# Entry
Amino acid sequence: MGTAPPSGLRERKKQRTRDALLRAALELFTTRGYEQTTVDDIAEAVEVSQRTFFRYFTSKEEVAFFAARLAESHFVDAVRARPPEEAPLDALRLAVLESWDTIGEAVEEVVPLELHMRIQRVIESTPALLAAHLRRAAELEEEIARIIAGREGLDVDADPRPRIIVAAFGSVIRIAERQWSEGDDFSLSAMRELASRYLEQVGPALTGNWRTN
# Structure
């Protein structure tokens, strides 16, 4: 009778299969297109069955957003860790910049960072993925608004300010993402620089006089 492999070995094998499926899927999405890639295509690229794919992922959409989910979790942790004396918008701005400075290592554990950045362009240019991205962004904004309300000692359902400031912040990030996806430099540093520049203009944009004559 054969001996079952140790649980640690089994887990490493499962992780290797998951990562191989993830990388194959993202490569296909970025070269062939998301809509043009089937689950069978992904499974065939890794030489596994469709059934094996569904052991690790529920859908193509889950694969497309796998690394993005890591980045979102990283950002939420960064917001929670900001010093309590910081103003809410400052806390959000510094948290997102800090998370971009450190997310590369976490993403690289599952996919190359360059591939992660390429899939962001696919998300921006694919209607089904963009709709899912906006839905996920709304859910993330609600989570962040509740964190901001908690750190300020506010009731998020009675005081609109946490949701207002997070909505403004989220809109700036969306503008930066769109501008980044339409540019020529698709690096993480380019995205960070663009968002940083736009976030610095939130205060003046909201309170300043824009007229030039």
Remarks:
- The two ends are 88 Å apart (CA to CA).
- The chain has a mean pLDDT of 89.
- Residues 29 and 36 are 8 Å apart (CA to CA).
- The longest helix spans residues 127-152.
